[in-house]
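Posting for a labmate who doesn't have an account.
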Amino acid sequence: MASIVDLVAQSKHAPFFLLDVSPPRGAEPSLLEPLLRVEADAFSVAYNPSKSVRVDSLALAHFLQTKTGRPTVFNLATRDMNRLALQSHLLGAQLLGVTNVLIIKGDAFNEKELALVKPVDDLRPTELIAAIAAMNKGLDYRGLRLRSPTGFCVGATVDPSRPLQTEARLARRKVDAGARFLITQSVYRTDQAEAFLAAFAQAGGRPEETPVLFGLPIPIKDGVLFGDVPEQVRRDLAAGRPGVDMALEQLHAFRQCGLNTFYLMPPILKGGLRDYEATSEFIQRAKAS
């Protein structure tokens, strides 16, 4: 299956949407029917969002890839597995043909959760990215040769709302370790996106070679919002303005600045459910504009 880097290159000046997907808290295929109707360019399957028990991100990525024929990215957190388990999991992904992977740390457990579950954190995200780069050269974590090298396209996360120079240097380290694309948290302002790209370039990064997919949320009234949400967004939602219209306006502003690659975040309802019907509407209107 095509890599995210190749897909972005093929999209040229058309908008590219990598859809953020929350695995369900049950294994019935019927729970996924609304998602299967969304015509995103590719799917990115989250890893245990809200630190809750959900379908494994790799299993769902393979399911979606098989059912839709579209490429998928599975998210993998360093928090929950040691390096042996992580690399065995990755070999399983290679066997299944799911070779786009996004490396994350995973949210820390709070004190109450720590009474029930323990973190592992055997590797930091940058270390795991480097370990996957070694697997792509045929070496496991002990330096022993695998029977065949893997072929992963590795992604990493960045947050432009944090101090820009620090975040840009971290992004550069992740790229140096082997990351080939970057995904951001929600970004509501074009100047924030442009400032990150400039800082990344100043830190020695090459935005033209390392696609940055900017987090584009579709907000919803009384839903869950992440990131540095502008007051105007909150006021518009409170006044009843449709979130799809707001996201399309934001998309237009980004495209006016020459930014065409997006990590599309469906509306998140209370309780964590996603509104995939609104997401389908957004994509249809975006592609038609």
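Reply:
Got it, the structure tokens are right above this. Residues 4-288 form a domain with the TIM Barrel fold (CATH 3.20.20.220).
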